[in-house]
Predict the 3D structure of the following.
Amino acid sequence: MIEKPFFVILTNRCNLACPHCYNELDPLKIVKSKEQDAMSRERLQFLFGQLKEQGYEKGFFSGGEALLRSDAPEVVGDAHALGLKTALFTNGHLFTPQIIARLARAGLDEVRISLNELAWIRNRDQYEHVFARQTEWVSALREAGIGVGIIFIISQRSMLYMAESHERVRQLGAGMKIQPLYLPHDVKGYQSAAAGRMAEGDWNGLLTELESLVARTDFTAESDFEVYSNPWKLLRYLRFVRDVYVMGARPDFCPTGPLLIVDSDGYFHPCLFRFDLVCGHIASDADVRAVRSRVDGHEELRRAPCFREECLSAYR
Ligand SMILES: C[S@@+](CC[C@H](N)C(=O)[O-])C[C@H]1O[C@@H](n2cnc3c(N)ncnc32)[C@H](O)[C@@H]1O
Ligand code: SF4
């Protein structure tokens, strides 16, 4: 069952500066302040209460790097206390035993760790180093009762390691999702790393690897994977991505839109990639009380009229 989700960008600050970060590269998203986090914990609490009443069921917390907000675990705990499910997107660099204990106490359901650096990997030594460092906390998170999903960014550099990473991640007790590295044509690294430069044979090779992995794995024996547990969904998604890049396919509809996003400046948007569309601001009680109807009013997004390459990373 898919719970009705909302997304909160807790901060736009980040401890990394990934060359591909679409928060910096997507013209529709470059509007955010980094000096301070505009949304107080109290205001977010009010928001969560209203969202629960309006039928939302699951909060996805992201950034920037959400864990840079010192009260991030407690904010998650406020959502949990209202009966909402919770998931946290992170680059995975800021975990400590103390942070994990606070997240577990807050009742966090899931963590999703992005392997951002792997998109730029140059050789096996680097791969081993980065993979080990970024999956270092998976066991501790699982032991604390938090489900873990890993996000693997496919690029010309990382594609060789996709199948291997998938197996290793599953051995750690986590599921893995993939998403292509989006880079605009004029950004350094486009020629050598962007998914948009991969050849048809590259995509077909990845598909063959994934098909073989799915065929030889008994996924029913792993039903306790809480996050990214459905390999057939992964296969379907990879086929769709290949078709977009190789044949210029477009989706008939956008399964993610309209969706409620609260950006780090407190504005409501109906899509992760359409920050030009604004449905209100968290400071206004009236906006908060009406947010679902304003977001749902963007029904035209469902027909995917504005589908762009950036959208692939959120598309399911
Ligand atoms: C903006 S990040 C914020 C959360 C956290 N800092 C992280 O990196 O997971 C949200 C997601 O967007 C992904 N992302 C950012 N830029 C991207 C790009 N150009 N192509 C593909 N995925 C991208 C990240 O890998 C991550 O999974
Ligand atoms: S860690 Fe996430 S938010 Fe930070 S720069 Fe990288 S992709 Fe962007």
Summary: The pocket of iron/sulfur cluster (ligand 2) is lined by residues 14, 16-18, 21, 23, 63-65, 91, 116 (CB under 6 Å).
